[in-house]
Design a protein that fits this description.
1229 residues; 9-stranded antiparallel beta sheet; 23% strand; elongated; DUF3433; transmembrane helix; transmembrane; membrane
Length: 1229
């Protein structure tokens, strides 16, 4: 084993041959790796690549209206990867900033003689950031300023990157090929029966205030289109054809002649005389009018060249056939087509926006279009029309539209003598008095108005199968959308960092240092070569910062390379003979000089407790938020405002950033003082001095702290690392979700139900029953036109939607408008227990029967075999139902059991009704009882506005307060077929329906005969693909029950709805969809665990680390650290005096110093007059010889300067004697 052979007196600074090439030494100067070209270039490229990636993300999100919602795993990656990347960028930038701040003082000295405040006393690492910025501005250290700007940019990124995307509903617009499903090109208007049926549907919709058919606006009927693979909620847009009409009307010249018996009309040069007695139908109500005049109206065809205008003639008639006055209007329609831009819901065909004309209108014609008004007014007995000739004979007051349930009757009805259908439409729709219709302008304007409405409803499109057009499909689904504002902020910050990285490289501090100067060993290497500075610093180790500054102020300092190629700090001073201050303790202030009280402010007891409590408070608040979010289904309502969204998204990162500043300052304080605490507590081998945690990045600290046995540094660094993980976890802390908030409210009841006998019969007391489903059936005259209900065919076959407060089988009591519901979110609903009224067919069963006649003849009779009708009229043969098969061999009808009341005949009332469906080879006959029930049920209502409710569903299982309507169940007669409009024109329905006279002719079946299919079965079979399924008993029962309940729900809605008490209110559950801000439990729990671990780290360090009496001042500046070494025997160690020692690698230097032990404390110098000194020195206590006598290798084993020394065992005892223990005892309390 080689040992040192030099004596203590020979331990001094080695003289190096001055012939060493200084240029060679300068070329081997040390440069921080982070400030070289390659790392800076790579860092800048990574930042610019991130900027480009974010830009691609924004542009793709914008062009595709976001991205499809990824899996949970990918969502987590998209949440946490951006912030993890920013933290990585922060690590790199921390290394940049650290190197710049570390080298600026050395660079200042390297540039020339520099004042101590700009060099050896300059501190950017340990100073407050605001003070550092002020100092950098004052001293023009631009590198420090741009590094600080970069740190601020990283801080902004670390907050903003926590949320760079959202999941939100977003409409996507996709190009698609649409299929036109219908066109009006070639549509026909010349079929009176089709026009009549369409007109009936239009009038029923108008009176019931139901919505118009799809693909229709106030201006156009539009050719429909659709998409074969459309999805719910999709909005289709395309350009299609819109058709319009206008009715041109002008007054005609009218003159009376022959004492008012003739009317002469002149229009467009064509004249015609018309006798006033053309109105031959004398209404039966003439005797009821006090006015001597009656009013009539008629439509005539007119031929003017190739045109056929309609002439509308209105007369004031003095009975029987004298015209007192007359007016006439000539009208002719025209039609146009143009392109319109349409956007419709693919499922409902409802317009998403008002269709917009995008082309020029052009003329178009339709077969029958030019005389459509005349077709509507046709009075020639069109079969199937509501103004059939036979219907006019028996309908009330010659009104062919009396079957429509007009909510308001036109005034002065009894003054109408005879109106043709068009004039009745003018009266009903526009509510005009007869006198008003004696004005030509009123007739013209009214006709133009209703013709436009009627035309759009009566024209029907033709189906097409191969016509396509290009359009778009907008799908509103949840998409992953980029937060453009956040991403732009990150891009700006990253670009700033990239530019700053270039400037940092360009303006990097240039030094003439052979190695990293951050460690105490490096400081000792430089100080050992700087004799003047070492001499000046002797005795200043225990001085305060202010005293040290005053002491160094008289000179300037410069970093130079000496003749041996080593760096040293030269002192330039006017003093000819500098004498170091005495360091001996004075007896008077000995205790004050020995008790050092400097501690990083963050490590003061108050600061430690405050930081620990703050972390605990955050944990408690986080847990509170988790509980509140769970209990209240979210924390707060989200109103869609960007400020609220951003505030909650970044609240967590901002709080964590602010707390993180305290934790990072705490860690920096621990790193600054902990190595000195360890040296003060006990001697440590020299290799510990080759590493300084204060100048290390957080990523490398744990390894070095473990290796150099610095437990407090390890624990505080662990807190910082946990903080970085917490900054990643906080990115997914707050989310926005939709919930349904249910609150209990009171809502006033607007309507309820009450039995209304007069709606069903004139009076039950007179035993007169009625076909109550339509009071306008001949033979029934209630004298009250308010009780009218659309026939079943209007409801079912015409496809009319249900009234607002009616489900398919139940009439529901209505709620009053409530202003509190005015601003509710869309899709809000209300659940309330409401009064209901409904009718059911019950106890349905198959009925035995006897067939009379041969089915092959197409007509035969059916006699039900029930006890209550077996002896009806003392003859079973009198109770026979005739069945007439249609061309396909099928028939379907409803047959009631009529009740009879008389002196000699017992009353028979089975409360039973028969439903018969027959085929030429089979018969299905079932009977049911009928009931009507009033009760309450829970109804779910959509709230479209404060006054608009819509019944979504009624829960029958919730029924309570059941009250059967016995009056309904006991009715002796339910009319056959549940009549429709055709019941008006069928002569079989013209008989008197009183119990005594109903079967006067001895043929009761005639009363119920209505052809092969009555209108209940017409409705049942309208949408049945295979009628033969109705031969099954259960299928038939289900079908008739459905249609029965459907019809009577509407009857109850019309006839039995009554106002509720004004004071009546109902309790309801208001369910309003609401977007809420949630705190996610999993990230919250992770954060709580991380913060709890940080709390443990802070408490562990705070309890364990003792900093009192360790340092007299902050150890950040070069002078402060060197003063602890000045006068130390460490500077005379051969390990440091070896030529080229400054250029040793850190590993080689560790090996050289491993056998030497050092301690921080008070020392008695061997040199006369030196007295006591506080600092780091070689410890003279014997330690493990295996460690002391260790071999080391110099920087170059082959170098001529490489020597091996022999060290005596008692070397450390001769180097110096520590009196720290004695002084500690002396000043201890």
């Amino acid at each position: 084993m080689a040992i040192y052979s030099m004596l203590p007196g020979q331990l001094g600074r080695r003289q190096v041959d001055s012939s060493i090439d200084g240029g060679t030494q300068l070329r081997s100067m040390w440069h921080p790796f982070m400030l070289t070209i390659c790392p800076s270039l790579m860092f800048g490229l990574v930042l610019l690549g991130a900027v480009g990636g974010l830009e691609a993300f924004v542009r793709l999100s914008d062009s595709h209206t976001g991205f499809a919602v990824p899996s949970t795993t990918l969502q987590n990656l998209a949440t946490y990867l951006p912030i993890a990347f920013i933290i990585f960028v922060g690590w790199v930038w921390q290394a940049y900033e650290l190197e710049v701040k570390k080298l600026v003082p050395w660079a200042s000295m390297c540039s020339g003689p520099t004042a101590p405040s700009d060099s050896i006393q300059l501190d950017y690492i340990g100073s407050n950031p605001l003070v550092a910025i002020t100092t950098a501005i004052r001293k023009r250290h631009y590198g420090i300023l741009i590094c600080t700007l970069g740190t601020a940019a990283v801080a902004v990124c670390s907050i903003v990157a926590a949320s760079i995307w959202d999941l939100e509903p977003a409409p996507r617009v996709l190009p698609v090929t649409l299929q036109r499903t219908g066109t009006y090109d070639g549509a026909s208007l010349d079929s009176p029966a089709d026009v009549a049926q369409s007109l009936t549907r239009y009038l029923a919709r108008t009176v019931l205030q139901l919505s118009s058919p799809s693909w229709m606006t106030d201006d156009y009927v539009i050719s429909p289109f659709n998409l074969s693979d459309a999805t719910p909620g999709m909005v289709l847009s395309g350009t299609t054809q819109g058709y319009n009409t206008s009715l041109s009307c002008q007054a005609a010249d009218v003159s009376l002649s022959n004492n008012g018996t003739n009317v002469t009309i002149t229009y467009a040069g064509v004249s015609q005389m018309i006798p006033c007695d053309v109105f031959v139908d004398e209404p039966g109500n003439w005797s009821f009018t006090a006015n001597p005049y009656l009013y009539t109206g008629k439509v005539f065809n007119w031929t003017v060249g190739s045109n056929t205008p309609a002439i509308l003639l209105a007369t004031q008639l003095l009975p029987p056939n004298n015209c007192a006055s007359a007016v006439a209007v000539g009208c002719i329609p025209s039609y146009t087509v143009m392109d319109v831009q349409v956007a419709v819901d693919a499922g409902t065909a409802a317009f998403n926006d008002t269709p917009r004309a995008v082309g020029t209108a052009s003329s178009v014609t339709f077969p029958g279009g030019e005389y459509l008004l005349q077709i509507i007014d046709n009075n020639n007995g069109v079969t199937g029309s509501p103004w059939d000739a036979q219907a006019q004979v028996f309908s009330n007051h010659d009104d062919p539209f009396a079957y429509i349930p007009w909510t308001t009757s036109p005034p002065n009805f009894r003054e109408v003598g005879n109106y043709s259908p068009w004039f009745h439409l003018l009266r009903h729709i526009l509510l005009l008095e007869p006198k008003q219709l004696m004005d030509a302008n009123t007739i013209a304007r009214g006709s133009q108005q209703i013709f436009s409405d009627i035309w759009r409803n009566v024209i029907q499109p033709r189906n097409v199968t191969s016509d396509s057009l290009q359009g778009t499909a907008a799908v509103a689904d949840t998409r992953l959308i980029s937060r453009v504002g956040s991403i732009r902020a990150i891009q700006v910050c990253l670009c700033v960092l990239a530019v700053i990285a270039i400037f940092v490289f360009a303006w990097r501090p240039h030094t003439c240092l052979p190695r990293d100067p951050s460690s105490l060993a490096s400081i000792a290497l430089i100080l050992s070569e700087s004799e003047d500075l070492a001499r000046r610093l002797e005795g200043s180790s225990s001085a305060t910062t202010e005293a040290l500054g005053n002491h160094l102020r008289g000179a300037k300092y410069q970093l130079v390379v000496n003749a041996s190629g080593d760096s040293e700090i030269a002192v330039l001073s006017d003093e000819t003979d500098f004498v170091a201050p005495k360091a001996s303790l004075q007896s008077g202030d000995e205790e004050a000089r020995c008790r050092f009280d400097w501690t990083p402010p963050i490590l003061y007891p108050v600061a430690r407790v405050t930081l620990a409590v703050l972390v605990l408070v955050i944990i408690a608040v986080l847990e509170l938020l988790v509980q509140l979010s769970s209990r209240h289904t979210g924390l707060v309502n989200y109103d869609g405002q960007w400020a609220q969204r951003y505030a909650w998204s970044y609240a967590g990162p901002v709080v964590l950033f602010l707390v993180g500043l305290g934790i990072e300052v705490f860690d920096a304080g621990v790193r600054a003082i902990h190595p000195f605490v360890l040296l003060h507590r006990a001697p440590h081998p020299g290799n510990r001095l080759t590493y300084d945690p204060l100048h290390q990045s957080v990523t490398t600290l744990p390894f070095h702290a473990l290796r150099h046995r610095q437990p407090m540094v390890l624990v505080s660094t662990l807190a910082v690392l946990l903080l970085l993980v917490a900054k990643i976890a906080v990115a997914g802390l707050f989310t926005i979700g939709q919930v349904t908030r249910v609150t209990n409210v009171q809502v006033n009841l607007n309507t309820t139900f009450a039995w209304n006998a007069s709606a069903l019969a004139d009076t039950m007391a007179t035993n007169i029953t009625a076909p109550f489903l339509n009071p306008d059936i001949p033979g029934y005259d209630s004298g009250n036109d308010d009780y009218e209900l659309p026939p079943l065919e209007l409801i079912v076959n015409a496809g009319l939607e249900t009234p607002n407060w009616t489900t398919p089988d139940i009439a529901v009591g209505a709620l009053a408008a409530d202003s509190a519901f005015q601003f509710l979110p869309t899709k809000s609903n209300l659940t309330a227990r409401l009064p209901v009224l409904y009718s059911d067919l019950v106890n349905c069963t198959a009925v035995p029967y006897v067939q009379r006649g041969n089915a092959s003849e197409g007509t035969y009779g059916i006699i039900p075999q029930l006890e209550c009708v077996a002896n009806y009229g003392h003859s079973p043969s009198r109770f026979i139902y005739e069945v007439t098969l249609d061309d396909t061999g099928h028939a379907g009808s409803v047959f009631p059991i009529p009740g009879r009341t008389g002196i000699d005949v017992a009353q028979i009332n089975c409360s039973t009704i028969f439903f018969l469906f027959a085929r030429n080879d089979d018969i299905n006959l079932v009977s049911c009882n009928y009931t009507m029930t009033q009760s309450t049920m829970e109804a779910k209502l959509a709230i479209d506005s404060s006054a608009a409710y819509r019944v979504l569903s009624v829960n029958r299982a919730s029924e309570q307060h059941v009250t059967p309507v016995d009056e309904f169940s006991q009715l002796p007669l339910i009319f056959s077929g549940i009549p429709t409009q055709d019941s008006i024109v069928d002569t079989a329905y013209t008989r008197n329906n009183s119990a005594d006279d109903a079967f006067a002719d001895g043929a009761p079946w005639q009363l119920f005969h209505s052809g092969s299919f009555d209108y209940l079965f017409s409705a049942i079979t309208a949408n049945t693909s295979d009628m033969n399924t109705l031969l099954d008993k259960n299928t038939l029962i289900t079908a008739v029950q459905s249609q029965w309940s459907q019809y009577f729900a509407r009857l109850a809605d019309f006839y039995m709805r009554v106002p509720a008490d004004k004071e009546t209110s109902v309790s309801a559950a208001l369910a309003a969809p609401q977007q809420r801000i949630f705190i996610e439990p999993k990230p919250a729990r992770i954060l709580e665990g991380l913060l709890a671990a940080i709390f443990v780290c802070i408490v562990s360090v705070s309890v364990t680390l003792r900093t009192a009496g360790v340092l007299p001042r902050p150890p950040y500046s070069i002078a402060s650290r060197m003063s602890l070494l000045a006068g130390s025997e460490m500077l005379n160690l051969p390990e440091l005096g070896e030529p080229g020692a400054q250029r040793l690698s850190t590993d080689a230097l560790e090996k050289r110093l491993r056998g030497t032990w050092f301690k921080l404390g008070w020392w008695v110098g061997d040199t006369e007059g030196k007295g006591l000194r506080y600092g780091i020195d070689v410890d003279g206590t014997d330690h493990d010889t295996a460690v002391v006598l260790d071999r080391y290798v110099s920087v170059d084993a082959q170098s001529p300067q490489a020597e091996v020394y022999e060290m005596k065992p008692n070397l450390h005892e001769r180097l110096g004697r520590s009196v720290s223990d004695n002084i500690d005892k002396m000043v201890s309390p």
